């Protein structure tokens, strides 16, 4: 499972002009799910997202986690993160989990996140989404389980 995290001052996801998820300070995470991923993969990614130290502390160093700053978590499913880009000029998506498997695991990740942290927001699985963000730093990091 892949999570492309971006530290944001604010972020929102729109579908057909409607805001379906939004946060203020926190993490926007684009989530890519591959066929070998399991609930254990989701649990591991979530723990890292909540505890990864990417927020600045009082000394201006990246030492604080999402939990410590009590920031928002915006999770957005993005199958293109699992693209095979090793050759050619067009990505291949055979390395992404099938939609039914990916949706189950994404929903599991969201439910676990909601049980452990607040606020948690999401995009809409499988929808054509427009993601708006103010990247803070910028800080953008790929986490993989």
Automatic annotation (TrEMBL):
Alphabetized SUPFAM superfamilies for the sequence: DTD-like (SSF69500)
InterPro entries named among the record's database cross-references: Daa-tRNA_deacyls_DTD, DTD-like_sf
Single GO biological process annotation from the record: D-amino acid catabolic process
Keyword Zinc: no
Cell compartments where the protein resides: Cytoplasm
Keywords of the record: Cytoplasm, Hydrolase, RNA-binding, tRNA-binding
Reaction equations catalysed: a D-aminoacyl-tRNA + H2O = a tRNA + a D-alpha-amino acid + H(+); glycyl-tRNA(Ala) + H2O = tRNA(Ala) + glycine + H(+)
Motif (Gly-cisPro motif, important for rejection of L-amino acids): 137-138
EC number assigned by the record: 3.1.1.96, 3.1.1.-
Family: Belongs to the DTD family.
Written domain comment of the UniProt record: A Gly-cisPro motif from one monomer fits into the active site of the other monomer to allow specific chiral rejection of L-amino acids.
HAMAP family given in the database record: Deacylase_Dtd
Matches recorded under PANTHER family: D-AMINOACYL-TRNA DEACYLASE 1, D-TYROSYL-TRNA TYR DEACYLASE
Subunit composition and interactions: Homodimer.
Annotated protein name in UniProt: D-aminoacyl-tRNA deacylase
Organism: Halopseudomonas sabulinigri
Gene label: dtd
